Amino acid sequence: MNDGLLDKLKDYSKSDFYPFHMPGHKRNFKKGALAEAYRYDITEIDGFDNLHQPMSLIKKAQEHAAKLYRSEETYFLINGSTAGILSAISAVAGGGRNLIISRNCHKAVYHAAFLNRMKLHYVYPEKTEGYDIAGPVLAASIEKQIKNILGKEEFKEKDAGETIAGIVITSPTYEGINSNIKEISKLAHSYKIPLIVDQAHGAHFGMHPQYPPNAVEEGADIVIHSVHKTLPAPTQTALIHRNGSLTDREVLKRYLRIYQSSSPSYLLMAGIDEAMRFAEAEGSQRLEKLLDMRELFLKQVESCRYIRVCPVTEPGKLVISVDESFMSGQMLYDILREKYHLQMEMAAGSYVVAILTMMDEKSGFDRLSEALLEIDEGMEAGKRHVCRVDVPASPVAAMELWEAYTLPYEEKALTGAAGKTAAEFINLYPPGIPLLVPGEIIGEGMIRVIEGYIMNGYTVQGVCNNKIRVVKTS
């Protein structure tokens, strides 16, 4: 019996119902590649439930997703993980103005803090030995920050849960590095502080024993998964899971209604539902095949002299390092794209990242291994100097994010901005992690970092024509 959302849409498209309602294509636009998709594209009509108050079809699909991830409750996100992050942080903001986050969180976390006028307290990830990538966030670092906040005079008489709204970390990171969510969850709950995990890149976790468990299973209170990143689902689709008693279901649902479209796409929701069904039926088997293909690939490229694959990432990521050569990550990225027609996910200072999913094929791995072997053959030894762009740690904040982001600003030449206060986010994109946050003082070292990225062809958001926005002082 057909009972999925897509099945219902297909059946309806064959019916004789005439649409005197939105959308404007009326399921009758027969030109181009999207013609078939338009046949299934409807609005909230009778019999198809409502994302913002699901009672039947969508409710059942969300419950199926919750069962797959072993969550108490799960909600579809059609505005991406960004909507989930904004909703999650807004939902806990009533518990206190202080928010502990890992510095390498996505910019959506910072935007949520801005919207809720929260004071940010950073924990910095460990370094990965031998590679230029950030490592995991340690529970000990988080506890140190908790004690630092609670030790302040104005908070000594309050419970931690009244002072610290929540803890937000990203696991896995863009490079596939995982933190110990189980340990961090236990720590957070001992202080009665909710833990929010941005697990956008880990929607496949928990579906095979050789992959990490998902953050729901490890005790996080709210978990966000980007379904489209690692499962066969359309771009912009995601899930948010809520568990335990430290967060309020109704408050979270309120913010989901605020941050998500009032006209949710049934095509996107059907895509989420189909991905869940596919992952349940074939996910484990396909992930097993992916492990085999990855292992063969690693054997094929182990003879490379200068190109290395970072061994500490989760199996869904390939971090391909050129740190032992003259080449930069951007140079490798460009060569793979332009000469070999292999499009990587992102480039960083000394590496590129490839995302692997259950839908990959052996032919892709073979093309990548052949390309890397050929590139490595023509490479020269020698450490880079110009391309190395290590980010200075612990920028000093002159004012809170929410304050600096609303004050009048002026544009300054990057070379003359030292000592000024940033009025705009400076992001390396992807992955969207801020180099500078509004309110932080722009140091000489950070200017050199930004100049290095620009010189080497990276996309640095927040810098235009070598100018940067700073808080206006007069």
How does this structure look, described?
There is one protein chain. With 474 residues, this protein is α+β, with helices and mostly antiparallel strands. The chain has 15 helices and 17 strands. The chain has three domains: 53-265, Type I PLP-dependent aspartate aminotransferase-like (Major domain) (Aspartate Aminotransferase, domain 2); 287-377, Aspartate Aminotransferase, domain 1; 401-471, Molybdopterin biosynthesis moea protein, domain 2 (Alpha-Beta Complex), CATH 3.90.105.10. A hairpin with a 3-residue loop joins β10 and β11. It is globular, with a radius of gyration of 23 Å. The chain is 35% helix and 15% strand. The strands form four sheets. Strands 1-7-6-5-4-2-3 form a seven-stranded mixed β-sheet, with helices on both faces.
